[in-house]
Write a structure and sequence with these properties.
- With 123 residues, the protein is an alpha+beta fold.
- The chain has one domain: 2,3-Dihydroxybiphenyl 1,2-Dioxygenase, domain 1, CATH 3.10.180.
- An 8-stranded mixed beta sheet has the order 2-3-4-1-5-8-7-6, covered by helices on one side.
- Strand 3 and strand 4 form a beta hairpin.
- The radius of gyration is 15 Å and the shape is globular.
């Protein structure tokens, strides 16, 4: 099962302070819109999303169809196939992708400790 590019999405209190902190760790802005209270920062293959006021708690994020540079992959496992596979294994879903559609879609599951895992396909 290929889940795609991995990042962690952090719920931050102060976007500017978090940006400055992660810049000290060698991260640079890779995407996002500070005016909309979100930035994507990258250090090598490591990606951190900073989100102010958008959700509570931190989220592990996987992006099927993307590599670590947000480039589309020619071949990948569609989010709906991943969902069917996980359902067959008895995983409970917080939100689900519409299995009658194609293209962009997402689902959210929780690990045993309540950590949110977002599988978010953009292609």
């Amino acid at each position: 099962m290929q889940l795609g590019a991995f990042s962690i999405s952090l719920s931050v209190k102060d976007l500017s302070a978090s940006k400055a902190f992660y810049e000290k760790l060698g991260f640079t802005v890779f995407g996002g819109e500070a005016a909309q209270n979100w930035l994507i920062m990258k250090n090598g293959d490591h990606i951190i999303g900073l989100f102010q006021g958008m959700f509570e708690g931190n989220i592990l994020t996987f992006n099927p169809g993307w590599d670590q540079d947000a480039h589309s992959l020619d071949s990948f496992t569609d989010v709906r196939e991943l969902q069917k596979h996980l359902k067959a294994k008895g995983i409970a879903f917080q939100t689900e992708a519409d299995e009658t559609t194609s293209g962009p879609a997402s689902f959210i599951i929780l690990d045993p400790d309540g950590n949110a895992i977002l599988v978010d396909q953009h292609v």
